[in-house]
């Protein structure tokens, strides 16, 4: 995993609408909560996404945008987002290239990991949390860190 204090790797990926998301462009506007999750519509991933949804306005007030990343395709992200009313960005990391850039570990060598990073507007990682079995702690931890960051935008 990448650690607090490291520079976050820049990347481009397609979002659920088929538009290109560029991390460093988004960082010009807000801090980014970048969370990697295994798969749309699984129990833990749905709980995590819905928790981010329920706290989304708090994240926005704290100066951050929430961005979820999995290897699911764009159509799967569209369905998942619509089904659960997700107001934030979902990115399709087909092939796991960005997951590898961010050193997101696999569980048992098979299951894509669940890792959350808070990246400040300077592109520096301020929080890194890894837990496949505690999806809701990703949300709470990220919020705690964001509330302590100075707002620059």
UniProtKB/TrEMBL annotation:
Top-level EC class as recorded in UniProt: oxidoreductase
GO CC, any one term: thylakoid
Biological function: Thiol-specific peroxidase that catalyzes the reduction of hydrogen peroxide and organic hydroperoxides to water and alcohols, respectively. Plays a role in cell protection against oxidative stress by detoxifying peroxides and as sensor of hydrogen peroxide-mediated signaling events.
Keyword field contains S-adenosyl-L-methionine: no
Complex formation: Monomer.
Catalytic activity: a hydroperoxide + [thioredoxin]-dithiol = an alcohol + [thioredoxin]-disulfide + H2O
Enzyme Commission number(s) of this protein: 1.11.1.24
Domain Thioredoxin, first and last residues per copy: 2-151
Compartment annotation: Thylakoid
Active site feature: 45
BP GO annotations: cell redox homeostasis; cellular response to oxidative stress
Protein name as annotated: thioredoxin-dependent peroxiredoxin
Keywords noted in UniProt: Antioxidant, Disulfide bond, Oxidoreductase, Peroxidase, Redox-active center, Thylakoid, Transit peptide
Major subcellular site: other
Keyword Transit peptide on entry: yes
InterPro entries, alphabetized: AhpC/TSA (IPR000866), Peroxiredoxin_AhpC-typ (IPR024706), Peroxiredoxin_BCP/PrxQ (IPR050924), Thioredoxin-like_sf (IPR036249), Thioredoxin_domain (IPR013766)
Family under the similarity heading: Belongs to the peroxiredoxin family. BCP/PrxQ subfamily.
GO molecular function: thioredoxin peroxidase activity
SUPFAM superfamilies for the chain: Thioredoxin-like
């Amino acid at each position: 995993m990448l650690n607090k204090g490291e520079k976050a790797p820049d990347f481009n990926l397609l979002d659920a609408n088929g538009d290109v998301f560029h991390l460093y462009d988004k960082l010009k506007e807000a801090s980014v909560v970048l969370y990697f999750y295994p798969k749309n519509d699984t129990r833990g991933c749905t709980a995590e996404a819905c928790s981010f949804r329920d706290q989304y306005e708090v994240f926005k007030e704290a100066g951050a945008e929430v961005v979820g990343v999995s290897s699911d395709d764009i159509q799967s992200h569209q369905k998942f987002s619509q089904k659960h009313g997700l107001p934030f960005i979902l990115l399709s990391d087909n092939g796991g290239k960005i997951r590898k850039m961010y050193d997101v570990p696999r569980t048992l060598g098979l299951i894509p990991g669940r890792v959350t990073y808070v990246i400040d507007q300077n592109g520096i990682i301020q929080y890194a949390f890894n837990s496949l079995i505690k999806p809701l702690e990703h949300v709470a931890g990220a919020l705690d860190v964001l509330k302590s960051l100075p707002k620059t935008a």
